[in-house]
Amino acid sequence: xxxxxxxxxxxxxxxxxxxxxxxxxxxxxxxxxxxxxxxxxxxxxxxxxxxxxxxxxxxxxxxxxxxxxxxxxxxxxxxxxxxxxxxxxxxxxxxxxxxxxxxxxxxxxxxxxxxxxxxxxxxxxxxxxxxxxxxxxxxxxxxxxxxxxxxxxxxxxxxxxxxxxxxxxxxxxxxxxxxxxxxxxxxxxxxxxxxxxxxxxxxxxxxxxxxxxxxxxxxxxxxxxxxxxxxxxxxxxxxxxxxxxxxxxxxxxxxxxxxxxxxxxxxxxxxxxxxxxxxxxxxxxxxxxxxxxxxxxxxxxxxxxxxxxxxxxxxxxxxxxxxxxxxxxxxxxxxxxxxxxxxxxxx
Amino acid sequence: xxxxxxxxxxxxxxxxxxxxxxxxxxxxxxxxxxxxxxxxxxxxxxxxxxxxxxxxxxxxxxxxxxxxxxxxxxxxxxxxxxxxxxxxxxxxxxxxxxxxxxxxxxxxxxxxxxxxxxxxxxxxxxxxxxxxxxxxxxxxxxxxxxxxxxxxxxxxxxxxxxxxxxxxxxxxxxxxxxxxxxxxxxxxxxxxxxxxxxxxxxxxxxxxxxxxxxxxxxxxxxxxxxxxxxxxxxxxxxxxxxxxxxxxxxxxxxxxxxxxxxxxxxxxxxxxxxxxxxxxxxxxxxxxxxxxxxxxxxxxxxxxxxxxxxxxxxxxxxxxxxxxxxxxxxxxxxxxxxxxxxxxxxxx
Lengths: 347, 348
Hints:
The complex is a heterodimer.
Chain A lengths: L2 E9 L5 H13 L5 E3 L7 H11 L12 E10 L8 E8 L2 H9 L6 H9 E8 L78 H15 L14 E6 L7 H6 L1 H8 L1 H10 L5 E7 L8 H8 L8 E4 L8 E3 L4 H8 L11
Parallel strand pairs in A: 1-4, 1-5, 5-6, 6-7
Antiparallel strand pairs in A: 2-3, 3-4, 7-8, 8-9
Helix pairs in contact in A: 1-2, 3-5, 4-5, 5-8, 7-8
Chain B lengths: L8 H4 L1 H11 L35 H8 L4 E7 L6 H14 L7 E5 L3 H13 L21 E8 L8 E6 L3 H10 L4 H4 L8 E7 H6 L1 H20 L7 E6 L26 H11 L8 E5 L1 E4 L4 E3 L2 H10 L20 H5 L4
Parallel strand pairs in B: 1-4, 1-5, 5-6, 6-7
Antiparallel strand pairs in B: 2-3, 3-4, 8-9
Helix pairs in contact in B: 4-5, 6-9, 9-10
């Protein structure tokens, strides 16, 4: 009997959870990454279903509300002597559950969630860059600085705001907080259209709902607010999916500053509730491009799906990001920490 | 109550050690000056197993339980009716949640009222034009009991592990008007938490303060009450932040003075009479009590940008101090039903 190791997947709707599961299985089954499948699982149907979509050059469909699919993968580490096989288990579910937990609280926190919170050795938090629900109205823009005579008050004095660049730029220092995308820098006095109809429900912003669920998970594990769990006891991989769709300037900067800039509440929460060694930010491209784009799909059809896509991360906190074609790395890191990542000393 | 993975609690938790030592030694006098930095312990009110917090604003009982921990700070947001208190709170949340925190020296660490903040700010997200009201008014009818919004922060520096819990009040202006009118007689009904306040945010409508002498006097009465309260306890220095709200309405007439001259009423032009009166009242604070003046605009017209909103919060977080407790770190079970006990225990 092999050891069972559980992971928790956390993500809103269409955040890339199901696509990743399919891609992961293709990778481990074809033994192209650090983790290899040792055999087929008892119940092959769920994995076959999700991975077949990718083999047919389409994304898996949106997971319907209320459906929970359990996956189990018998795995072992590649290239290690005397490695002990284990079964990796996790579940996929509709991302609307995160919204529901935020609004319905205890009523939506099922036994499955309790188990997910307490039995998992780590969490994978999925963020999709194209589907960020910000807590703000688009009417609000970030204050450029704290100087009362500076541009922060400029719009009130009908003065011109500083020119805004189209894309994030690398400034002289390595300060990701210095980047503000155009849509967050209105500064002009023109009235802007309301972002929501007055009677429209406002969904909880992505980061707010995820932070609340993470607080529930921590509470379920007996962790107080701000308490740092031992790194080996609980790791969190924050995965920015569809990394290939992120603007190339952000791709150069890497997932760490990307999350800090676009999900600041979540980023701060991670910084204050986990050891640095317990959290890693990854950029993930499960397919290497957009399957909805006919030209890319044509290329994809001619390739091995098991070898498409990439995984990006920062080997050191201030270092440049590196890219590997191995999408099993976040799983390996969640299970074993830094030792599961490639040795970059001779790179 | 300590709840998690500490194999050697005494070694890892200075407070536990301090508490044990205190129990075996004679109680030292309550310090009058700035105490040692708050400890790195993580304390939370005990919750029933399997039951989460509601996520909305905390009631007095939940807040009271949290206030037994010395790292909890109660900041009372005061001001008359329609003076921008709720807008300030909402704008602070929006800034924190969006990471627009330049110069704010703390990181968000958690909240027991995310749902409450979100609900508070939903109307701002739906705001459809510059001329209608952005947020509904907090009225006596909509709020019959004190409610508190919770945020937890850690310093941005990784080297400091301290967690500070902040409770912010969101109360109808009428309650404070009653307090200004009736003094301590008004406290038991709605504001019994006031003596436990660690720091005050006094919302002053900047436009009204320029134009309306009667309003200026009302603000002064409220500040007089606050100063008297601060004088009452010598054990805790309670900083006061004068928050000039809706400053966007006057910023063209009254330029923001430099940081170094803000405490000088003469630097504020048409606001001078109002601020001179307030500064006179602040002169009666116990020696060394920090105070400062902050121009803010929660949803500045026309672009609806929060301006200067987090500065008074940072000021209170930086300057509030609280003596180390000699009591157990969490509320004794017998006090759970009497949450006002903690409010009365201002020297805790």
